[in-house]
Amino acid sequence: MRHYDLSPLFRSTVGFDRLNQLFETAFEAEETPSYPPYDIEKLADSAYRVTMAVAGFQDKDITITFKPNLLIVQGKIEDKDAAGRSYLYRGIAGRTFERRFQLADHVEVKGAKLDNGLLRIELALELPEAMKTRQIPINGGAPRVIDAKVA
Q1: Please, are residues 145 and 132 in contact by the beta-carbon 8 Å criterion?
Q2: Whole-Å CA distances, 54 to 8, 92, 144
Q3: Among 49, 52, 42, CA closest to 110
Q4: Residues 64, 121: Cα–Cα separation, whole Å
Q5: 3-state SS, one letter per residue, for the chain
Q6: All domains of the chain, ordered by start, with CATH?
Q7: Cα-to-chain-centroid distance, residue 80
Q8: Within 13 A of 55's CA, how many CA atoms are on the CB side?
Q9: CB atoms within 10 A of CB 52
């Protein structure tokens, strides 16, 4: 396992402790799960979408949990008829899963939709007004917003 020393980076920065934690957890994971497959799309400057292929799952089988900086998607199918079935080939994976997505600060979940076996989770980056770029006047007047776009 590799270990990267990020201490030179943190000597001149403040408040990036979470970055170090992200690097540590990224390199700790030995095996990355491949089920269910997913896409992450950038729709606009501050809009994202996670799309997961969850064939066979219904909305009652999926739980989406949002914590600060973490999105957890869990799926569990209770197939009561599977015991009596005899498969010659089983290619549709209907197994329990859990996917975790690390989110940046100020990313919020806007909604989720399950349609035709695809779970779409809409995300948006919403910066507080205090974090938006603004120009500071020299003689104490009111600040003026320069750019309302999210970086």
Answers
A1: yes
A2: 43, 10, 47
A3: 49
A4: 9
A5: CCCCCCHHHHCCCCCCHHHHHHHHHHHHCCCCCCCCCEEEEEEECCEEEEEEECCCCCHHHEEEEEECCEEEEEECCCCCCHHHCCCCCCCCCCCCEEEEEECCCCEEEEEEEEECCEEEEEEEECCCHHHCEEECCCCCCCCEEEECCCC
A6: 1-32 (no CATH), 33-147 (2.60.40.790)
A7: 32
A8: 5
A9: 22
- Predicted confidence (pLDDT) at residue 128 exceeds the cutoff of 60: yes
d(Cα 55, Cα 79) in Å, to the nearest integer? Answer: 14
Which of 7-11, 13-17, 23-27 shows the lowest mean pLDDT across its residues?
A: 13-17
pLDDT tens profile 67-102:
988 899 999 987 666 667 787 887 777 788 999 988
User: Which 8-state DSSP code applies to residue 59?
Assistant: G
The pTM of the whole model exceeds 0.70: no
Write out the two tokens for 59: 């909305």
